[in-house]
Amino acid sequence: MKTRVTFTYLILLVALLASLFVQPTNAQVTWTHLNAGGSVPSARQSSGAVYVKAPGDTYGAMYVFGGYGSGSRFNDMYKLTLRPGQEQWTRFTQQGLWPSPRTGFVMVYDSAGNRILGYGGDEGNNLRGDNWAFNLSTSRWWPIDTLLGYVAPPARVGGNTAYFSGTRKLYLFGGQGFRNPIGWYWHDTWQLDPSSGMWQQLTPNGNYIPRQGGVAAIDEANNRMIIFGGVLYQAGGLYYFNEAWKIGPLDQANMTIEQLFPSGSSPPAMRHSVAVYDSTGNRMIIFSGQDDGGSLHNEVWELQLAPGQERWNTLSPGGQIPPAMYLAAAVLDRPNRRMIVFGGNTGGGQINDVYSLGPLWTAVEEPAHTPATIETRFISAYPNPSQKTFVFEYQLARPTQIELRVYDITGRLVRTLTDRVNHAGTARVIWDGNSDNGRTCPSGVYFYELKADEKTFRGKIAITR
Fold it and tell me: pLDDT tens for residues 113-130?
């Protein structure tokens, strides 16, 4: 009897210890009100925002454009340097062509071109469908050229947008056309290729009710776009959603759009929340929003994204909790394992506060996806030489940012093959022998450089056409 009881307690102890390692460290997650210095933006809502850690950038930064506050729309541009404990705002000087004042400006980082891409927005009496690029080297905006007969999404606001580093494309779904209570509510899907500035309309299989004001994130591990919430005007009022949907695989032609049915308790039906994707936990983290009763929220939810095992959880962070709000801006500061939230509307008006939520995962959790015996290493580039296609194979000891680039014999960058977070284990990247602008590379010697887990691997390949 004593042996059986001891064995039972042992099982319970093992289960408890396992749960400590497997479950997210929610009890340690706290909110911090950041006292950022420098040229602080005025209070605002509905700004565009993106996280950038450009080459040579030590700490990474949150870039913010435009928004609405004190009865006016803005077209100013700010950078919040994210050095922990010393966060600092910098305002950019407007030079040359510049996007017009607007809200809802979509911003994503194009790592291949080391630039920020901007799209669309609401000028107040006019919706925009224009495309812009912000050169991080010159600190200048420039419109992305379009041609007569150019295929592009109709102007809109409140679409679900995200950038997928796996395909180096921006994805846009849904939104609202022209400004009035009814408008057009879209359910179309588009893809923007930053290298050419060309839009392509996609046709995923499946049905989806049009809406705007939801949030989206790219599930990098599973090559899909995840969408939550939003509203639709019908029958004289707004109908709010709390559904989760997926579009993917984003790197394949035969995409589908399907509703997910996660277990757990979902957030209320809401609009104008903010969300980030945490690749370490393979989850979408959602904060704030306005529900169908008009109430504002400051809760934090996570949607765990293991395919077929999706689940909602409510997080309970402590610390300096932000007020209930909507229409804020947020980015993931991955090097510091935290979500950064700026601005928003608390119901009493706009704010310009900055909050951080973290750590979203611990240093122990990052390598937990693979046995400790596995090390980060480059395996091979094959076939070599090749007439066209090369396969780069490497192994990662932990989830980490991967940069894989190909250069010609003069040292000129030919192709950025990947610049994204990869999960631990063995991975492969295929190069089709084309440059970043889609041109076929001629015969000759080329060099590759792989940066992973603070290591750099270099080698030589040859094209023989």
Answer: 788 989 899 998 789 988
CA angle at 376 for the pair 372 and 380, rounded to the nearest 5°: 135
Q: What is the total count of domains within the chain?
A: 2
Mean pLDDT, range 6-12, rounded to an integer: 39
> Which structure tokens are listed for 182?
């009814």
210 exposure class (CB count in 10 Å sphere: 0-12, 13-18, 19+): middle
DSSP code string of 338-391: EEEEE--B-SS-BB--EEEEE-SS-TTTGGGGS-TT---EEEEEESSSBSS-EE
Q: What CATH number corresponds to the domain at position 454?
A: 2.60.40.4070
Q: What is the DSSP string of 114-127?
A: TEEEEEEEE-SS-E
Q: Which two structure tokens, joined as six digits, stand for 353?
A: 């506060």
Q: Please tell me whether residues 149 and 219 are part of one structural domain.
A: yes
Count the neighbouring beta carbons within 10 Å of the beta carbon of residue 15: 10
Nearest to 101 by CA among 48, 145, 50, 149: 48
Q: Smallest Cα–Cα separation from 217: which of 291, 167, 275, 152?
A: 275
442: pLDDT confidence band, cut at 50, 70 and 90?
very high
Give residues with Cβ within 8 angstroms of 20, minimum separation 6: none
pLDDT in tens, 137-155: 899 999 886 544 467 888 8
Indicate if 218 and 300 belong to the same structural domain.
yes
Q: Final residue of a domain: which of 358, 377, 412?
A: 358
Range of the domain at 426: 368-463
Residue 206 lies in a domain: yes
What tokens appear for 17 in the block?
A: 């210890």
